[in-house]
């Protein structure tokens, strides 16, 4: 029997005939749009978490997401073997309500806009499995109740849909935006307020205790474990769902006021027809967030402004009669900065390695920002990237004899090759020269595996 089959068998997620009967009775599948449940069903959520198919799916998702080890150093690859040995006692602790998560490991990553760092909390591999199993059960029940204007971390919803929704409001004449930024939202969520929202939806006291335990498990930082009195550490599977639950109050308030808005996680934009209306909305929302949810608005990053002056999920909008999506200037700057890093001659890598790294990065970038409606921008970026690569080749060839030999071997006339090699201009200037464009054609660069940003 294979290792994976053994793990599934220990978890009770193998053949249906191998599952304990008690599990089967307490683990009926939940429909995508569940009917209101009876109190007895609500009290048996933990049995649902431990149901074999739910665990099988959770283990598959955790393994696919990979991720760094937590405080115990256990890798995701080592998790199945650990479960084969310890799952019976882990399952018992979950069903008895005594499971105790480990502290999360604190890591800091730079924010994309260069504005400081984002603190992530990395749970242990086992805690990630448990959180994922809990997430799958709760999300099936909670997600259908969330606002239609909420898009972040929800099944079947995406950032592209959120941007398109915002574009539709602007096109309809709502050409002022209340751009709301919550100050360190994930770090400042009030546990008591959050748990009161969870308790409205969850009757299983074991589940309430487990979620509270995840929130208060502590953080290992600089070798010391500190208490976590507030916040939902980014990095665990359950955190996005809890954040959506917390901000569901904000969504309902906006709907109650009849406002047009789009929310993606803690990034909220409200669209109105005038600056005066925007100022009224901003004042009201600040009062609501601080009073009801104990959350603080980041004054420096929030504003009432024209949409084309603000960015939303990496995009902004052309200020024209026909509203079009375009890539935000900061996103373009980050792309160019990354391309410069990948095409530096001093990295000491081969052309194949450089092209491979570019391909991985550009394919992902295109998959997201290809959603823009400004193809001329993508065309100019393509041209700039190809110029960077020609510059890389020119520097790699180093000396004049090698440069002359490479140019003539690639179809450049001897006179033009000699003129280019003898030019006093620097590598960047020459990267746009007729000789290098002839020697390193667009078709040749594409044959090396360089993708185009234009779909």
TrEMBL record:
Region (Disordered): 1-40
EC class (word): transferase
Protein name: Group II intron reverse transcriptase/maturase
Cross-referenced Pfam families: GIIM (PF08388), RVT_1 (PF00078)
GO molecular function list: RNA-directed DNA polymerase activity
Keyword Nucleotidyltransferase (UniProt): yes
Keyword Ubl conjugation tagged: no
Extent of Basic and acidic residues compositional bias: 15-26
Domain of life: Bacteria
Chain ranges of the Reverse transcriptase domain: 90-317
Keywords: Nucleotidyltransferase, RNA-directed DNA polymerase, Transferase
EC number per UniProt: 2.7.7.49
Species lineage: Bacteria, Pseudomonadati, Pseudomonadota, Betaproteobacteria, Burkholderiales
């Amino acid at each position: 029997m294979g290792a994976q089959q053994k793990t599934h068998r220990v978890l009770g997620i193998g053949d249906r005939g191998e599952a304990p009967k008690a599990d089967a009775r307490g683990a009926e599948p939940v429909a995508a749009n569940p009917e209101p449940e009876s109190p007895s069903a609500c009290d048996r959520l933990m049995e649902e978490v431990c149901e074999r198919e739910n665990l099988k799916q959770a283990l598959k998702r955790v393994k696919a997401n990979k991720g760094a080890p937590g405080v115990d150093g256990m890798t995701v690859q080592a998790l199945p073997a650990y479960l084969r040995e310890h799952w019976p006692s882990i399952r018992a602790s979950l069903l008895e309500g005594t499971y105790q998560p480990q502290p999360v490991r604190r890591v800091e990553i730079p924010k994309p806009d260069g504005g400081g760092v984002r603190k992530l909390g990395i749970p242990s591999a086992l805690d990630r499995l448990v959180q994922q199993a809990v997430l799958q059960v709760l999300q099936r029940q909670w997600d259908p109740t969330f606002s239609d204007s909420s898009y972040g971390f929800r099944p079947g919803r995406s950032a592209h849909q959120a941007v398109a929704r915002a574009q539709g409001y602007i096109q309809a004449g709502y050409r002022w935006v209340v751009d709301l930024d919550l100050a360190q939202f994930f770090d400042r969520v009030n546990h008591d307020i959050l748990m009161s929202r969870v308790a409205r939806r969850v009757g299983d006291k074991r589940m309430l205790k487990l979620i509270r335990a995840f929130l208060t498990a502590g953080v290992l930082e600089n070798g010391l474990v500190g208490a976590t009195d507030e916040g939902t550490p980014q990095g665990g599977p359950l955190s996005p769902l809890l954040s959506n639950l917390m901000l569901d109050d904000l969504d309902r308030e906006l709907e109650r006021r009849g406002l047009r808005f789009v929310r993606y996680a803690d990034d909220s934009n409200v669209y109105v027809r005038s600056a005066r209306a925007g100022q009224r909305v901003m004042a009201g929302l600040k009062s609501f967030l601080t009073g009801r949810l104990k959350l603080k608005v980041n004054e420096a990053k929030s504003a009432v402004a024209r949409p084309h002056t603000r960015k939303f999920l990496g995009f902004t909008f052309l200020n024209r009669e026909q509203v079009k999506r375009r890539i935000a200037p900061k996103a373009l700057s980050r792309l160019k900065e990354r391309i410069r890093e990948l095409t530096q001659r001093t990295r000491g890598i081969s052309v194949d390695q450089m092209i491979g790294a570019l391909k991985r990065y550009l394919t992902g970038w295109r998959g997201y920002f290809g959603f823009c409606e400004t193809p001329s921008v993508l065309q100019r970026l393509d041209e700039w990237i190809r110029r960077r690569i020609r510059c890389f080749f020119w520097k790699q060839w180093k000396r004049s004899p090698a440069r002359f030999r490479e140019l003539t071997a690639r179809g450049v006339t001897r006179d033009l090759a000699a003129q280019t090699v003898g030019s006093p201009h620097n590598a960047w200037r020459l990267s746009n020269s007729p000789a290098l464009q002839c020697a390193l054609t667009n078709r040749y660069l594409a044959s090396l595996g360089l993708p185009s940003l234009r779909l």
